[in-house]
Amino acid sequence: MSPRPGAESGYGAPYSALARVYDQWMAADRIPYDQWIAFTEKRFHEAGFAVRTILDVCCGTGMGIRTLQEHGYEVTGVDASEQMLDIARARTAPGTELLRLALPDERISALGPFDAVLICFDGANYLAGDGALATTLDQLARTLRPGGLLLFDLSTRLSFEAIAALGEFGEDFGDFAYLWNTRHEPDTSSYEYLVSLFVPEGELYRRSVERHPQRCFTHDEVENALRGAGFTDLAVSDNYTERAVTDATRRETWTARLATGSLPR
Question: Which residue intervals of the chain bear CATH 2.20.25.110?
Fold first, then answer.
């Protein structure tokens, strides 16, 4: 799920090539979409108002959108990858609004108002630039109705360190294969993943390499960015459960509410 296309000399933009194998890869990893939706709906039911309209940021191939639509919600999707959105257009309900926007982007503030905003599966970790998280949260706050909900997840430093410790690794799925390398400058929060994808083309394989810049955030960074954007009632739990976060948490799930006195700025 990709908020920003950052093609660099020799590298493809995130998910430009991976889009074609993304769903197969996620199915093999048994990504728990149903658990994510169940947790999200519980937060909606606790909101004190009927959640009807949702903005799905970093919507990817539309798996989450389709499930939410099946549950009766009206969903707009945003992603930076046109290739991912092409798949989402074929999967989601006819007429679904799907927009290519890289975050942060002031144009997203003109959407809505929505009852809720979602950023699932590490999408917020791609906000790797200086101030990008705070700027994006400020822009998303303007898309929400007063009292509206924001729900997003973040991979923790522990998760990044565990992946970096693997060094180079890969997997052969039969009809495609990949190699994964992590670059990390010591004593920083920034990580860079280089993902090489190999797909068959005749008797040979075509190689595409994508650069995925991400970063981890401290609780203070997240809380300050949320409060600065006008959010309140902040809560964080362990990976779409009711469990409290611990030093062993690999993915945190954050929820917040836009202050009821907030107005579009």
Answer: 159-214
Residues 6+ apart with CB under 8 A from 171: 177, 178
Q: For CATH 3.40.50.150, list the domain ranges present in the chain.
A: 19-156+217-258
Q: Residue 242 is encoded by which pair of tokens?
A: 């009711």
The per-residue DSSP string of 212-245 comes to EEEE---HHHHHHHHHHTTEEEEEEEESSSSSPP
DSSP code per residue over 179-220: EEEEEE-TTSSEEEEEEEEEEEETTEEEEEEEEEEEE---HH
pTM to 2 decimal places: 0.93
Write down the CATH number for the domain with range 159-214.
2.20.25.110
pLDDT tens-digit map of 63-82: 999 999 999 999 999 999 99
Residue 35's identity, in one-letter code, is Q
Q: What is the pLDDT of residues 78-135, one digit of tens each?
A: 999 999 999 999 999 999 999 999 999 999 999 999 999 999 999 999 999 999 999 9
Q: Contact 140/107 with Cβ under 8 angstroms?
A: no
One-letter amino acid at 87 equals: I
Give the three-state DSSP class for 148: strand
Q: Does domain 19-156+217-258 have CATH number 3.40.50.150?
A: yes
